């Protein structure tokens, strides 16, 4: 059964084929390389703006691998994260910094994370007075190199430290890669509760730490910045391929049954005929987008033993479990969780 705090809505698990990440990380990385006398052209792609550009996920992975090689240091992600300065992450960061509590700050990271990455998600859940902040990395993102993951979580910790007058450390941190020979830098960044080899990338805080007021929280400013960031997020989504936009809309409606093309077109602000043409130009059809979406989500959901097959069928909009079983066999040649 679904656990309290689980967010298994299909739109939260949607995985577009081409994943891009924002290039905000290039600015602090460039500073880091320059301070160590490394020619940034050996590491960073030419011609991309550092604040508002995007780069494919695999290219971003290559950047971090190249950076580690250039400075001969596998911990480059953590080191760059420790040297972040206010403004490196633009409007999203300023919205986070205006938050009244760390919980509100991480909720903003979760809500607006699409500005930074098309696919990965940040999810908060709470149990027994402890809050887990999980960096969900579906598909190819789960294979990103350690410097990439450590930069993301290390950036969160850097901002946490800057927001308060006293350090607010997590009770434990789980990292999804093996421990290095020397873990002293990890302990300096994350505290003594850091652990390696986990399936997930997670920070755990006591609820009291997350809910304590921050000295520079500003609710009025946060509201203004939220509106600005929401507009930026809408603009970013508007540049995506039509097949991705259709998939996102369908994912939000699946639990109510399979949406009709006309309904989706209306929500996207185009006529059904125009939507068909735009999908055809991208080499696909509405039916194919829906089928591929359901297939990807089915594979993701059936890997979670806490979700029953009946719940999977419901989340994907099938009229009954038997219809889902038939579709799953057509997609994979086997039954869900079977042979």
Detail the topology: elements first, then pairings.
Elements: H1 10-13, E1 20-22, H2 26-35, E2 54-56, H3 57-71, H4 76-82, H5 90-97, H6 102-111, E3 121-127, E4 130-136, H7 146-163, E5 172-175, H8 184-190, E6 194-196, E7 201-206, H9 207-211, H10 219-238, H11 242-253, H12 261-268, H13 272-281, H14 286-302, H15 309-315, H16 321-332
Parallel strand pairs: 5-6
Antiparallel strand pairs: 1-2, 3-4, 4-7, 5-7
Q: Describe it for me?
A:
- This protein has 339 residues and is an alpha+beta fold.
- The protein has 2 domains: 17-233, no CATH class; 242-332, Homeodomain-like (Arc Repressor Mutant, subunit A), CATH 1.10.10.
- The protein has helices spanning 10-13, 26-35, 57-71, 76-82, 90-97, 102-111, 146-163, 184-190, 207-211, 219-238, 242-253, 261-268, 272-281, 286-302, 309-315, 321-332; strands at residues 20-22, 54-56, 121-127, 130-136, 172-175, 194-196, 201-206.
- The strands form 2 sheets. Strands 3-4-7-5-6 form a 5-stranded mixed sheet. A two-stranded antiparallel ribbon has the order 1-2.
């Amino acid at each position: 059964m679904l656990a309290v705090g689980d967010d298994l809505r299909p739109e939260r698990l949607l995985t577009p084929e081409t994943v891009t990440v924002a290039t905000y990380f290039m600015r602090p990385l460039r500073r880091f390389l320059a301070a160590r006398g490394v020619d940034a052209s050996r590491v960073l792609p030419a011609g991309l703006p550092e604040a508002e550009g995007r780069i494919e996920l695999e290219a971003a992975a290559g950047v971090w691998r190249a950076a580690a090689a250039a400075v001969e240091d596998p911990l480059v992600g953590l080191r760059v994260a420790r040297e972040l300065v206010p403004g490196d992450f633009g409007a999203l960061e300023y919205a986070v910094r205006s938050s009244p509590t760390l919980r509100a700050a991480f909720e903003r990271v979760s809500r607006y994370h699409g500005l930074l990455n098309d696919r990965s998600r940040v999810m908060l859940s709470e149990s027994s007075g402890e809050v887990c902040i999980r960096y969900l990395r579906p598909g190819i993102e789960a294979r990103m190199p350690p410097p990439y993951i450590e930069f993301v979580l290390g950036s969160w910790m850097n901002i946490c430290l800057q927001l308060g007058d006293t350090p607010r450390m997590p009770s434990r941190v789980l990292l999804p890669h093996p421990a290095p020979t020397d873990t002293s830098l990890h302990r300096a960044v994350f505290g003594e509760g850091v652990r390696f080899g986990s399936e997930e990338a997670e920070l755990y805080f006591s609820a009291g730490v997350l809910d304590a007021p921050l000295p520079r929280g500003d609710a009025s400013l946060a509201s203004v910045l939220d509106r600005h960031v929401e507009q930026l997020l809408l603009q970013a989504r508007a540049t995506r391929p039509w097949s991705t936009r259709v998939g996102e809309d369908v994912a939000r409606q699946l639990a109510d049954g399979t949406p009709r093309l006309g309904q989706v077109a209306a929500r996207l602000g185009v006529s059904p005929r125009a939507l068909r043409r735009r999908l055809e130009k991208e080499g696909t059809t509405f039916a194919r987008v829906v089928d591929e979406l359901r297939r990807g989500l089915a594979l993701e959901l059936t890997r979670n033993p806490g979700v029953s097959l009946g719940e999977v069928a419901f989340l994907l909009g099938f009229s009954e479990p038997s219809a889902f079983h038939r579709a799953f066999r057509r997609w994979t040649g086997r039954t869900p969780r079977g042979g």
